[in-house]
Amino acid sequence: PEPWLQKCDTSYFVDRMLHHRPEMAGFAARVTLEMQAYCREIGADLEQHVILIKDMWFNRYRLGDAQEFHIHAGSHLSGIFYVEAEEGAAV
After folding, report:
1. Residue 38 has pLDDT above 80, yes or no
2. Which residues 6+ apart lie within 8 Å of 14 measured at CB?
3. What is the pTM of this model?
4. Alpha helix (H) residue ranges in 13-71
5. Are 24 and 56 in contact (CB under 8 A)?
6. What burial class does residue 39 get, using C-beta atoms within 10 Å of its C-beta: 0-12 exposed, 13-18 middle, 19+ buried?
7. What per-residue confidence (pLDDT) applies to 34?
8. Closest by CA position to 54, among listed 75, 31, 84
9. With contact defined as beta carbons under 8 Å apart, do 52 and 20 qualify?
């Protein structure tokens, strides 16, 4: 990691299967619908390819925290849902 990065709170090393929790069922279903809509928009053949959530975890970033560029090996899509962010936080 770059020296300007700081650690964030994460469930990545403990629980990457949040989408299987009953309390996350509605959210996971909505994410799946959004992924399917995006795939249709870019012309993916959903008859031939199954769209599913492989992993889901949380990260909590505080002021000054950041994430370096990275890939999610074995995934065709990845996304982020921000629960709360201040105006201009991503600038």
Report:
1. yes
2. none
3. 0.74
4. 25-41
5. yes
6. middle
7. 94
8. 75
9. no
pLDDT tens across 42-85, in order? 999 999 988 899 999 988 888 777 788 888 888 888 988 888 88
User: Do 23 and 68 touch, CB atoms closer than 8 A?
Assistant: no
Alpha-helical (H) ranges within the chain are 25-41
Residues 46/52, Cβ–Cβ less than 8 Å: no
Quickly tell me which residue has 């994460």 as its tokens. 10
Report yes or no: 56 and 16 within 8 Å, Cβ to Cβ.
yes
Q: Which residues contact 65 (CB under 8 A, 6 or more apart)?
A: 5, 6, 7, 8
DSSP state letter for 30: H
Q: Both tokens of residue 76?
A: 């065709």
Looking at the predicted structure, is the pLDDT value of residue 6 above 60? no
